[in-house]
Amino acid sequence: MLQSPKRSSGGLRYEGSSQGESSIPSIDFSGMLAAVRRQMRPVLIGTCIGATIGLAFFIAKTPVYFAGTQLLLDSKSKVNDEVAVTALSELGLDTGAVDSQVEVLKSMNIANSVIAKVGIDRVLDDDNVQSFVASGISAVKSGIRAVKEAIIPPRQLTQAEQDAAQREAALLYLSNNLSLKRVGRTYVIEIGFTSTQADKAAQIANAYTQAYVDDQFSANFDATRRASDWLLPRIQELRQKAIETDLAVQSFRGEKGLITTSTGSLVNEQQVGEINTQLVLARSDVARAGAKYDRIQSIISSGQMDAAVSEAIDNPIIVELRNKATAAAKTESELASKLGPSHYQVQRLRSDIAEYQRLVFSELGRIAESYRSERDISLARERALEAQLKSQVGLSDVANKDKVALRELEREADTYKNLYETMLQRYQESLQKQSFPVSEARVISVAVTPSLPAAPKLVLSVILGSILGFIGGAGYGVVRELRDLGFRSASQIRELLRLECIGVMPRISARQLAMVPPLASSGPGKVAGSAMMRYGTNHILSPFAETLRSAKVAVDFSVGDKAPKIIALASVLPTEGKSTISKNFASMLAQLGARTVLIDADLRFRGLSDDITPHAQKGLFHILSQGVPVSSVMMVEPDTGLLFIPAGSDIGSAHTSNLVSSPAMANLLSEIGAHADYVIVDLPPLGPVVDVRAAAKYFDGVLFVLEWGATSRDLVVDAFEANPQVYEKCIGVILNKVDTHRLHFYTSKVPQDGLHKKYAAYYG
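Structure tokens predicted for non-specific protein-tyrosine kinase (764 residues):
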């Protein structure tokens, strides 16, 4: 990134950021503030103009009134507490649905309904309607229509065509004045209308809501009527199909013998279930009888008289025999202890006990035979049931195959039956909707006649106008700031050129110049001049003269005690005031008592010579090219004693750079320098000619003159880079034609440039 130029032996060059500098650019807030201050005037002027335009707009604009009403799109509107009718859309109202209803409100059908309710004459009774309709037609179409009407006169419209045109104008008027807006994320739509008549705005806004509600009623009724017309033949067809499939099911049952019970199952299926249940019971009986028989057989085989089964316990014979045996055993035990085991009584009791046991086992054998008989009967019943079950299972296999076809027929019959019932229910609902039509929308607020106009508003018009004017003024100020490429302050000269700003020359007004009478030549060899050429010597306490004195100090400090001091004044462009400063600077030096010689070395333009010695015929050109003596061309200013060498007239050579850099120029400077303290050389501009570069070697220093805000900074830098020898001898820069009243707007870092008002007491 290029930064400010730096003075070196090679001339003017750009340097990048050094290693020690931060690469982060700093924000110059003071410079920004100074730019805002500089452009404050156009911004304020633009703001005032904008506010005035806004006020004029408010005064000239016809007031319009706005009336609004609100619709709620309710997808579950109820007719009463008993009959609830849902909307046609069962998905609810989303954003797309609300936007769709907004488009419905914009439709031509709604607009035509509004015209029918309000009346087309009422819609078009405004004085500004026709002009409003005309404004809706583009300029291109209007031009084409005008050309066509000029070439081919329009034919007389019929009454029907006039009515159609009038209706088209009314539709355009309604469309352009209608405003529709969804309120937030709700299902509320705000319908507004703008008109020059307050009552019409409210009337049309309410007409729109009523037209929309009526349209919803009509749409729902038409939809349900079309649904009923479509459902009726479908119902008749489904009823016939349901009857046919039901008959097919019954016929198939009869053919295959698939008789069902009250529970819905087939008869053979019920029989198989019952047989299977009996078979389980029979097998249980066989197992139980076998277990009893085996148990009693084991008791008989073991001879355990004490062992018993349930039938033995309940048998009174066995119980009695056991009791007798027990009593005999007790007696036998007592007698045996008394009489001995061999006593006949003991023996008889033992034989009685044995007989009792034989009788018990005999009775148990009889019971065992009954158990065996019971087991055999259960086995026979089990075999019979198994045979019967096998037979019924065979029949069920055949029936199951028939049941597959039966189920298919039943499913078909159920399908047609369900469809028939559903369609019949829908048909009844559609009839109810026709009887009780509902709308998805309801009005939640009614438009009232506005008392105040909606537009224009005074405060808003002025504020908007002021804002637009402010933006325009700010934009113009930005353009001015971007186009301001000249030098405006001493800090810019120091930062960009690395040169010292010697001072600023204030712009001299015509009123100030009128106070200084021009000096007329009092004879041959005398220097005259305009008031501007003598301003510094006539206003010795002015800022103008103070800058000239600053230039003398800078020259003395830079050149030192060398005599004479040969100082050139140069600029980049013409008309920057270089010749004026040269003359005033030389006159001021002469007025201070220094022997001063002023040379007009601008051989191509001769502006200085034409101003102060307009009748001089001989000059520098003749000295350098023809060897004319210096004394024959030199003139003197009477009041200061300044010696002046004009450029001369009838300059025929175009190679003036060869003359000003020739040895004759060196001899001239040496000759006049022997009798002078200062030699001031007025050079041509640095930009268009090379005379300055050619003669730079003869000068001890160069004072550079820049016009304040006029000369481009880039142009000055380029000129110095192209003429390094001039830049090396440059003592400083004088800013000329400075507007001191605005100078402080361009000083953001060095406030001394803007303190001329505070220094006014030091100037006369």
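The longest strand covers residues 65-73.
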